[in-house]
Amino acid sequence: MLGRYGMLLILIGLVILMSLLSPTFFTSGNILNIIRQMSVVGIVAIGVTMIIITTGIDLSSGSVIALTSVVVASMSHPGSFPLALALLVGLAIGAGTGLISGTIIAKGRIAPFIVTLGMMTAARGAALLFTGGKPIGNLSDSFKFIGQGSVLGIPMPIIIFFIVALVSYIILNRTKFGKYIYAIGGNEQAAVIAGVNVEKYKILIYGYAGLLSAIAGIILTSRIASGQPTAGMMYELDAIAAAVIGGTSLSGGIGTIGGTVIGALIIGVMNNGLDLLNVSSYWQQILKGVIITVAVFIDSKKNKKK
User: Fold this and answer.
1) Confidence band of 305 (pLDDT split at 50, 70, 90)
2) Is the pLDDT of residue 1 over 60?
3) Of the candidates 81, 80, 93, which has an alpha carbon nearest to the alpha carbon of residue 126?
4) What is the model's pLDDT at position 291?
5) How does DSSP classify residue 136?
6) 287: which of 75, 93, 255, 266 is 20 to 30 A away, CA to CA?
């Protein structure tokens, strides 16, 4: 029970604790605000989860968010390009960067840490070069609706986040692609012997993660109504933290979308609650680091027992 529902119990306990410490915490408006705030990181974390399951890592997602942000913002001025075209270009940029990283990792046999670190630097540099280091504003109302609008009282970022989570859950648990992700992470050599085209699926996994980073970048740009070349700073670390806290094993082969969503919610609840309690952001960073370290320590202990 603890192994399966431990993180969910921690989330519930954290919500109860914050509700007792702050009377404004457990209100419908604040709960929606928490989910809306963590939706961007949550979407990125879902893609990162799939990568980590294959024993990979992605450090470029924050920079891909920034590159997507500035390009989409430049195409979303009132009366410029159709909204659909701007969104397609943004999604293509995200998927393209992921496919490039995946190809180098799979074909070149280079460590994912090194490749995605290089992509992180290159994508951030491209975003700064594209804008000259300046933000891009004056976005159309139709574009701003993606991050600022709501349907039946539910903010659009939350709707998009749960659609992404549902689709990713189906991919990971109900498709051949998902089974191959677990197979590659569980034992890559066995997957090769079983006839799995490991190189192909690794490339697709990184491409899908890049696509999700682009979706996150579009939502963030719409929310702040500005394309920022500095957007997404440290988001990759928050995404990795959400995945690890949610039970995704850095050793590969283990991880769930539901666990990652819970991990992202834990981070969101913690950040929001500490803000309401006026705890310094510096202490929040320290606490987040401690939580990540403990989660990795528990994961390594579980792997040794197995």
Assistant:
1) low
2) no
3) 93
4) 76
5) B
6) 255
- Rounded CA-CA distance 117/97 in Å is 12
Q: Cα(177)–Cα(179) distance, rounded to whole angstroms? A: 6
Give dist(CA 111, CA 93) in Å, integer: 22
pLDDT band at 70 (very low <50, low <70, confident <90, very high): very high
> Cα 213 to chain center, whole Å?
6
Which two tokens mark 109? 């046999």
**What DSSP state is assigned to residue 60?**
-
Q: Which 3 state secondary structure label does DSSP give 56?
A: coil
Q: Is 138 exposed, middle or buried (0-12, 13-18, 19+ CB in 10 A)?
A: exposed
- For residue 236, what are the CA distances in angstroms to 91, 123, 240, 277? 18, 13, 6, 26
Q: Could you give the percent of the chain with pLDDT greater than 70?
A: 95
Residue 250 structure tokens = 């850095």
The pLDDT of residue 235 is above 70? yes
Residue 240 identity: I
- Look at phi and psi of residue 55 and say left if phi exceeds 0, alpha if psi is from -120 to 50, else beta: left
Query: 5-14, 108-117, 148-157, 187-196: which range is least confident on average?
Result: 5-14
Q: Which of 92, 91, 111 is nearest to 101 (CA)?
A: 111
Contacts of 20 (CB under 8 A, 6+ apart): none
Show the beta-strand stretches assigned E in the chain. 150-151, 154-155
Q: CA–CA separation, 79 vs 139, rounded Å?
A: 10
Owner of token pair 């893609």: 47
Neighbours of 279 (CB within 10 A): 14
Strand partners, 223: none
Q: Which two tokens stand for residue 6?
A: 């431990």
What is residue 4's predicted lDDT score, i.e. its pLDDT? 65
- What are the two backbone dihedrals, phi and then psi, of residue 136, each rounded to the nearest 5 degrees? -115, 120
